Amino acid sequence: MQQGEAAGAGQERVIRVALGERSYDIRIGRGVIDGLGAAAARLAPGGAVAVVTDRNVAAAAGARARDSLRAAGMRVTEVVLEPGEGTKSWAGLQRVVEAMLAAKIERGDLVVALGGGVIGDLAGFAAAILRRGVRFIQVPTSLLAQVDSSVGGKTGINSPHGKNLVGAFYQPSLVLADTGVLDSLPEREFRAGYAEVVKYGLIDQPEFFAWCEANWRGVREGTGAREHAVAVSCAAKAAVVARDETETGDRALLNLGHTFGHALERLTGYDPRRLVHGEGVAIGMAQAFRFSAKLGLCPPEDARRVERHLTEAGLPAHVSRIPGGAGSVDGMLEAMAQDKKVTRGALTFILARGIGRSFIAKNVSRDDVRAFLEEDMRAPA
Predict the structure, then answer these.
(1) Potential cystine with 260: which of 32, 136, 284, 297 (Cβ 3.0-4.6 Å)?
(2) Does 87 count as an annotated binding residue?
(3) Within 10 A of 183 (CB to CB), how many other CB atoms are there?
(4) 196 marked as part of a ligand binding site
(5) Would you call 262 a catalytic residue per the annotation?
(6) Sorted alphabetically, which Pfam families does this protein's record hold (predicted)?
């Protein structure tokens, strides 16, 4: 499908993640959650399912998932957690694993991650370590999870030392991205997920970024633009994951904005009242482009164009937009030192030569980073 096209909102699309014997489909469209039971029954006929979710999603979509599974003859156990990044922790992991063991979930059974990125990462990691591996299905209920975290097999939890530092690569058996459930998503959460959509255009699809500039309102309103945005994003990520499943090469490009963003999340204590993940990514992408421009790598107009679109879509593009600020330059540098892309202490960033021309920059000078942050963190929005 070309970037200028967008099929109707009711059309289901299927993206294949090609990983040999670990290949799986991403099914995208309104109502695909109602096929959960049939899909689970094909994977584990007559088996048991542990549905891991949070309190908010359980109230909005839990009955629909549960009814579909039970209608297909599956025994269902629900593990309902508190919403928020604080759940993605050692304590949260222990609670999920022990609940599944108590429910006698066997290796031939299934885990369903019903929720946003926190639930998907946590439930996926629990599935990876339960009885040394139980199959799982991702049912992402946020835009961010549909276009990013549910695809590619990154699972894990946070540590006091930083975000996503404990985990495993463990691929799901299926992803069901029901775009209809996004209709009730809070505005702020939807905007935060949209940052990850924009990211794919900024990495290597300048025509998709231009499409986003023209169609972002339709993505929010739930026209065919929403399915198109999710499908293009998933296809882009699937292609990268197929080439580089465990992030030893160009999969690192998917972390555009995340080195800055994860540091900001840590410095704000993962407090959703101040900053949520997608907002951190939005600021981080804008910083990556401003940093690239400061280094003479990227035209300043491209950096300004990125800022304009993020701001127009209701996302923050500057640290000054974070309530209470984000601490010191030294704090940012310390947080960045725990980034997963650090190699023998050397900083690695995803930088850009322009929109759609991102690249992996290794051994970035700490002096250059410090000089940029000292200027950028003082600048008004």
Answers:
(1) 284
(2) no
(3) 11
(4) yes
(5) yes
(6) DHQ_synthase, DHQS_C
